[in-house]
């Protein structure tokens, strides 16, 4: 019951332009179904095989988002159904997604993960790395992937000023890329800025986020990551 109420609460309070991804990692299908029955259709998972198992069991009008780090050898398991991949951080990975998307006669939308946190993180790209990738000739040849925006994770801190600074940094990069004629050409597909989680989504939205990834504030605490 709490889950349905939480979904309702988020629907009511999020601004219209902000998309809610319900992060359901580690949670059982019956809890996801409570969110589904409350109207939620976008779910985020961070393990490909767990997402695939849930996809098999659940209604087919759900959009599945892969929000975690992606290993190239597992792309094939999600290529038939994944709707958005949030954490792309290399050309090699994009190429693999393109290959598997082709096999499934699909086009898969992706976000590039940008490093914004102060703390050392293994994942994500620097701005210039992302820029060089986005304007490269090689990327244009990947016909079955579309890069539709950026994703970032702020530092694990309660310091609101620091969180704001990190989100602003990403928003600035996003705007710069979005206004770039090669990166965001006539198709105008570069439109998603995925930032904000349970603890910091309000600050993320204030700083320009249009997609939040909320787990524990909907489903309760997780026992493990
Ligand atoms: C788990 C996770 C979230 C959701 O975290 P909560 O704090 O539970 O809202 C968001 N984004 C990513 C990348 C995650 O791995």
TrEMBL record:
Q: Which Pfam families match?
A: Ala_racemase_N
Q: Which residues form the Alanine racemase N-terminal domain?
A: 3-222
N6-(pyridoxal phosphate)lysine occurs at which residues?
Answer: 25
Question: Quick check: keyword Transcription regulation in the entry?
Answer: no
Q: What are the UniProt keywords, alphabetically?
A: Pyridoxal phosphate
Note the InterPro entries from the entry.
Ala_racemase_N, PLP-binding_barrel, PyrdxlP_homeostasis
This chain's function reads: Pyridoxal 5'-phosphate (PLP)-binding protein, which is involved in PLP homeostasis.
Query: What family classification does the UniProt entry report for this protein?
Result: Belongs to the pyridoxal phosphate-binding protein YggS/PROSC family.
Classification via PANTHER family: PROLINE SYNTHETASE CO-TRANSCRIBED BACTERIAL HOMOLOG PROTEIN, PYRIDOXAL PHOSPHATE HOMEOSTASIS PROTEIN
Q: NCBIfam families per the record?
A: YggS family pyridoxal phosphate-dependent enzyme
Please state what the protein is called: Pyridoxal phosphate homeostasis protein
Its organism's taxonomic lineage begins at: Bacteria, Pseudomonadati, Bacteroidota, Flavobacteriia, Flavobacteriales
